[in-house]
Specification:
Layout: H1 6-15, H2 18-50, H3 64-91, H4 94-126, H5 134-155, H6 159-173, H7 176-186, H8 206-238, H9 243-254
Helix pairs in contact: 2-8, 3-4, 3-6, 3-8, 4-5, 4-6, 4-8, 5-6, 5-7
């Protein structure tokens, strides 16, 4: 039986405390910002300048360095929402609810970027901006799910009740994630099949693959930064009558 070290348990227990999360993330933010810059700069330079042109698509393929990481993030963030929503429902952990709702707008942004860049890429490749194939349609449904989560949360005044309703919606909507992922394998679509996540080996040259992976990591770090910033604001709003927020405001006033 696998046993989790006590230090790890204590760390996550402390992280569930709103004041500790607020203080810890304040110290973490400069490091995350530096890591993001270290990833995004070589990723963009490698993808837009160093990587060779594709033998079929020419330079138009370079939109993948935005489109593909954004599409990956749209799925990843929704899974995070569903997991944290489930944790909030089962264990009533306030921070899990905050992470869930703070992820929604970031995930919606990535999904929108994926749809727009996909259309820009599809026009020269397919001859059309949009087709109602399985991958594009299920990705559009994902955007509507994100917007539904955001709208439902804003429509309910009691944020604990709103979090429960949103968590249920997120858990129900998670069925769309495998549909998006496997749609190009289950149905005949215009969208190309997997190239990076193939089980044998990626059908993309390493000179193109490395910048793509750097961009994917950069987008993940950006998500963490954006989610933390939104979560800190959400926590302060929820805990505005608590002593630690009053002390925080008093310190800001003194400074």
């Amino acid at each position: 039986m696998f046993l989790v070290p006590d230090a790890v348990v204590r760390f996550f227990h402390r992280m569930a405390s709103p004041p500790h999360f607020y203080a810890f993330t304040e110290k973490l933010m400069p490091w995350l910002t530096g890591l993001f810059l270290l990833l995004i700069v070589p990723g963009l330079y490698g993808g837009l300048y160093l990587a060779p042109a594709d033998y079929q698509q020419g330079d138009s393929y370079r939109i993948i360095y935005i489109h593909v990481p954004a599409a990956w993030m749209s799925l990843f963030i929704y899974v995070v929402m569903a997991v944290t929503g489930g944790i909030g429902l089962i264990w009533r952990i306030k921070l899990a609810e905050v992470v869930m709702i703070s992820s929604a707008s970031v995930g919606a942004s990535f999904t929108f970027i994926a749809l727009v860049t996909g259309s820009l890429w599809g026009k020269p490749m397919w001859g059309t901006w949009w087709v109602w194939d399985a991958r594009l349609t299920s990705e559009l449904i994902l955007l509507f799910l994100y917007l539904g989560v955001i709208g439902l949360y804003g429509a309910i005044d009691d944020k604990r009740t709103a979090s429960k309703a949103v968590a249920i919606l997120a858990l129900v909507g998670v069925v769309n994630i495998p549909i998006i992922h496997y749609s190009v394998e289950w149905w005949n679509t215009l969208h190309q099949g997997p190239t990076v996540t193939k089980m044998d080996k990626p059908s993309i040259h390493v000179s193109m693959l490395v910048p793509l992976l750097l961009m994917a990591l950069a987008f993940k770090v950006y998500y963490i930064i954006a989610m933390i910033l939104r979560a800190r604001v959400e926590l302060v709003q929820r805990e505005r009558n608590s002593q630690w927020v009053k002390s925080l405001i008093a310190e800001e006033v003194v400074e």
